[in-house]
Design brief:
Order of helices and strands: HEEHEHEHEHEHEH
CATH superfamily: Glycerol-3-phosphate (1)-acyltransferase
CATH class: Alpha Beta
Largest sheet: 7 strands, mixed
Strand order of the largest sheet: 1-7-6-2-5-3-4
CATH topology: Glycerol-3-phosphate (1)-acyltransferase
CATH architecture: 3-Layer(aba) Sandwich
Helix content: 25-40%
Radius of gyration: 16 Å
């Protein structure tokens, strides 16, 4: 319940103050749950992506962020969980409860706004569950609230939702590095293309 209350409030705030625009909503699968991935440059990114996608997302957040008391309560209310040791829980949510998972493959916010190298988590989840990856590109949040900023600037934000990426489900306990690297490349390249297009 709280997720939808917060989403409704954020939708109003982002539309009014940041003129939020969403492109590619038609790319969301209608008959399958999915794994949302996005570039990460600002604390505003999960808020923007979560507001743009009209489906509940269980976000995986960097464990260190839970030390920030002012945001810890929000993470708890929206059922966000830390990345450390979260793989089995994420797989369970994807396979057994038909839920959607969201994460940032770069791990942490980019300090200069440029796309960093991706970690293996998103590709691993897709390969183990067979669920599609939904790549998202968030533009404008770096100008609105970069890492060292204390207050946001009221600049436009846009979320681009790309076409689903399907990675062939692997049934082995240990995923081959070749499959992982191929998956990581496809995911990162899709987001990079959307960012480059602006």
């Amino acid at each position: 319940m709280w997720y939808w209350i917060f989403r409704a409030i954020l939708l109003i705030i982002l539309k009014i103050f940041f003129r939020l625009r969403v492109e590619g909503i038609e790319n969301l699968p209608q008959k399958s749950n999915f794994i949302v991935v996005s570039n990460h440059v600002s604390f505003l990114d999960p808020l923007a992506v979560g507001t743009a996608i009209p489906r509940k997302i269980y976000w995986l957040a960097f464990r260190g962020i839970y030390k920030l008391s002012w945001i810890k309560w929000f993470l708890k209310m929206t059922e966000t969980f830390p990345t450390s040791g979260s793989s089995n829980k994420a797989i369970h949510l994807l396979e057994n409860n038909n839920n959607n998972i969201g994460l940032f493959p770069e791990g942490t916010r980019s300090p200069d706004g440029k796309l960093r190298e991706f970690r293996r988590g998103a590709a691993l989840l897709a390969l183990k569950t067979g669920r599609p990856i939904i790549p998202c590109a968030v533009l404008g949040t770096y100008k609105a609230l970069p890492i060292k900023a204390k207050l946001p600037r009221l600049t436009p934000i846009k979320v681009k939702i790309g076409k689903p990426i399907y990675l062939l489900k692997q049934f082995d306990d240990v995923i081959d590095d070749i499959h992982l690297q191929e998956g990581i490349f496809k995911i990162r390249n899709s987001i990079k293309e959307m960012l480059d297009a602006g």
